[in-house]
Write a structure and sequence with these properties.
By secondary structure, the protein is an all-alpha fold. 77% of the residues lie in helices and 0% in strands. It is built from nine helices and no strands. The longest helix has 29 residues. It starts with a helix and ends in a 9-residue tail after the last helix.
Length: 227
């Protein structure tokens, strides 16, 4: 039965992307209805600081997209026998790398260079939520939920930039990426429900959200970080 659900989800996702307006409306609705479920909103000071330090934000954002693509590639390589995961993750890799290219383009337009990657304290801390034991399926679900969490937080940050930044080109840019990240979030959640019962996934997802909220309270608001 779960195979049917993910199979249906894959087909629906393909249809929506082929009908871009429907896809955008569905993902925008998901964001507006807060189905991403984040428990802790971003500190309202962040978007103002980000706008004043847009070069640093764009550099960090570029590497976030690179790491997102690399994470999906790693899962494909680690679980090549899981055909549904490979099918869903492959286009996500392409989309995340396209996002990397687009962020680099925004940097270049403004006369900025990519620069070196920075230490991602947010990701380092939320990785500690992952199970160290349990079955292979439980560990896989944790990896999928970790990626879903990062996509959800990125989506929330992109929404803030879209709504508050003065640069009109970047407003549109971050709107488009917000929609895309919402779709990736849904992909990860749907895959998790394929490999473990929905009740388990929902319970574990709530644990991720609760822990992420605690972690955000410990992180300072920085001008050079997307997360």
């Amino acid at each position: 039965m779960r195979f049917t659900k993910i199979g249906d989800a894959i087909l629906i996702n393909r249809f929506l992307k082929a009908n871009r307006e429907n896809y955008i409306c569905r993902m925008k609705e998901a964001v507006n209805n807060n189905v991403l479920g984040l428990q802790m909103p971003t500190d309202p000071r962040w978007v103002n600081i980000a706008q004043m330090n847009i070069e640093d934000i764009l550099v960090d954002h570029a590497y976030c997209e690179q790491k997102a693509a690399s994470s999906c590639i790693s899962m494909i390589v680690q679980y090549p026998e899981r055909s549904e995961l490979v099918e869903v993750m492959t286009p996500v890799v392409a989309e995340e790398w396209n996002h990397f290219e687009r962020v680099v383009e925004q940097l270049t337009k403004r006369g900025y260079k990519l620069g070196k990657p920075r230490k991602d304290e947010y990701v380092i801390k939320i990785q500690k939520i992952l199970k160290k034991g349990g079955s292979e399926e439980e560990r896989l679900v944790d990896k999928l939920l970790l990626n879903a969490l990062i996509e959800a937080r990125s989506c929330e940050r992109f929404k803030l930039l879209h709504q508050n930044i003065e640069d009109e080109e970047l407003q549109k840019f971050y709107y488009e990426l917000m929609v895309s990240e919402a779709g990736h979030y849904k992909n990860f959640i749907q895959l998790a429900k394929l490999y473990m019962p929905e009740v388990y996934v929902q319970r574990r997802w709530k644990e991720f959200l609760a822990e992420e909220a605690k972690i955000l309270e410990t992180l300072e608001v920085r001008a050079d970080r997307m997360h």
